[in-house]
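Lay summary. Proteins are chains of building blocks that fold into shapes, and those shapes determine what they do. In this project we predict the shape from the chain. Here is one chain we studied, written as its sequence of building blocks.
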Amino acid sequence: MHGFMWYFHADHHQPKYAGIFERNDVFFVIFAIPSITLFYFGVEGGLNYKFFIGLGIMFYGMCYFLIHDVLIHQRFKWFKNTNNKYLIGLRKAHKVHHKHLGKEHGECFGMLFVPFKYYKI
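And here is the predicted shape, written in a compact code that computers can read:
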């Protein structure tokens, strides 16, 4: 997302979005197409490896949505009041990632791994 796909991801690093959707949301489509295609070809003659690759892509997309969009950015106010140290650390680490508005010099935070320095409250 910080490489050749930056065009789609750049608006995500801006402080405010113009509407409900942002260009970054196109990644759901970009990953859904191969996932659905692999599901389709993965059930020919019984389940084969293509189905399970499609399933993995789908699970990654679900994690990205739930962790990144719902929990971290709170685009949906489902888990607004949490006291969980891990989840608070995850949000802090992602704020550091967003400190830079450009694609260079951003700190990699991982999606599920939180460095211990962000657990301090």
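What the prediction tells us: DSSP finds four helices and no strands in the chain.
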